[in-house]
């Protein structure tokens, strides 16, 4: 059985879904894909079902009844991946902001290197972001600075969503306790990994903003991240994380 599964949450990604699936499955390493779709009105899931006939045994689909947030979609996917025996579990966006060609770099960092969690990092070697407006770049960059100050994690890209986890990480960080859904979810996953003394490694990538479809970013997600970091740190201080 293949040891790698790429989890891609979707909501109205009909413009991107076929291209991202074909790109991931054309990599030299034979990755598998799990699409977690939140009942997309644009029928993203129907396109995935059609492609499943072409990629039998490599492309999987989990349908959820409604849009319930990025964090819950990933946790759903993590549980599915663990139940189905995968050793390396990836997070990846559907919109090509994460380059499928970088998947093997993250895999190598975990399989051949000493990483338990490998981050596709936009900021570990400077600012490697394409097509984002300056205010978005500054918000993302300084969010990571803020996270480092509050949590003590030595991570340059704390809100990154291009990740490879070793199975052992997901089995031991308490998926049942994950509470955040947006930027704060990405921070929470890294912080729980950090608090369990797993090794986190940043792998430099170039992040390119989506050219098709609409961003899912909202003010509520940003607010969650700002106050969520403080909440995580306080929980750690009182040993309730």
Please write out the topology:
Layout: E1 4-10, H1 17-25, E2 32-37, H2 44-52, E3 59-63, H3 70-83, E4 88-91, H4 103-111, E5 117-121, E6 129-130, H5 134-151, E7 163-166, H6 167-172, H7 183-195, E8 200-204, E9 207-208, H8 219-237
Parallel strand pairs: 1-2, 1-4, 2-3, 5-8, 6-9
Antiparallel strand pairs: 4-7, 5-7
Helix pairs in contact: 5-8, 7-8
Describe the structure.
One of its GO terms (molecular function) is dolichyl-phosphate beta-D-mannosyltransferase activity. Keywords: Glycosyltransferase, Transferase. This is Dolichol-phosphate mannosyltransferase. Pfam families: Glycos_transf_2. Belongs to the glycosyltransferase 2 family. The chain has 241 residues and is α/β, with parallel strands linked by helices. The protein has a single domain, classed as Spore Coat Polysaccharide Biosynthesis Protein SpsA, Chain A, CATH 3.90.550. Helices cover 40% and strands 17% of the residues. It is built from 8 helices and 9 strands. The strands form 2 sheets. A 7-stranded mixed beta sheet has the order 3-2-1-4-7-5-8, with helices on both faces. Strand 1, helix 1 and strand 2 form a beta-alpha-beta unit. Helix 5 runs parallel beside helix 8 and helix 7 packs parallel to helix 8. The longest helix is centred in the C-terminal third of the chain and has 19 residues. The chain starts with a strand and ends with a helix. The model has no long low-confidence stretch (mean pLDDT 90).
């Amino acid at each position: 059985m293949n040891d790698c599964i790429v989890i891609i949450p979707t909501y109205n990604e009909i413009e991107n879904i076929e291209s991202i699936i074909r790109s991931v499955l054309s990599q030299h390493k034979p990755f598998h894909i799990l699409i977690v779709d939140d009942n997309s009105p644009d029928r993203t899931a129907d396109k995935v079902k059609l492609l499943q006939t072409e990629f039998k045994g490599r492309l999987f689909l989990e349908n959820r009844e409604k849009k319930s947030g990025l964090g819950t979609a990933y946790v759903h996917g993590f549980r599915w991946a663990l139940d189905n025996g995968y050793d390396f579990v990836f997070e990846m966006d559907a919109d090509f902001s994460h380059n499928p060609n970088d998947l093997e770099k993250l895999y190598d960092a975990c399989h051949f290197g000493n990483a338990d969690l490998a981050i596709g990092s936009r900021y570990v070697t400077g600012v490697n972001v394409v097509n984002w407006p300056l205010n978005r770049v500054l918000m993302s960059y300084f969010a990571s600075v803020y996270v480092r100050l509050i949590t003590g994690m030595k991570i340059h890209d704390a809100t990154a969503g291009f990740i490879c986890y070793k199975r052992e990480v997901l089995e031991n960080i308490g998926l049942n306790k994950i509470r955040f859904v947006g930027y704060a979810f990405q921070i929470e996953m890294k912080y729980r990994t950090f608090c369990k003394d797993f090794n986190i490694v940043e792998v430099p990538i170039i992040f390119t903003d989506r050219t098709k479809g609409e961003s899912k970013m909202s003010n509520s997600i940003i607010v969650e991240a700002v106050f969520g970091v403080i909440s995580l740190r306080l929980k750690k201080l009182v040993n309730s994380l």
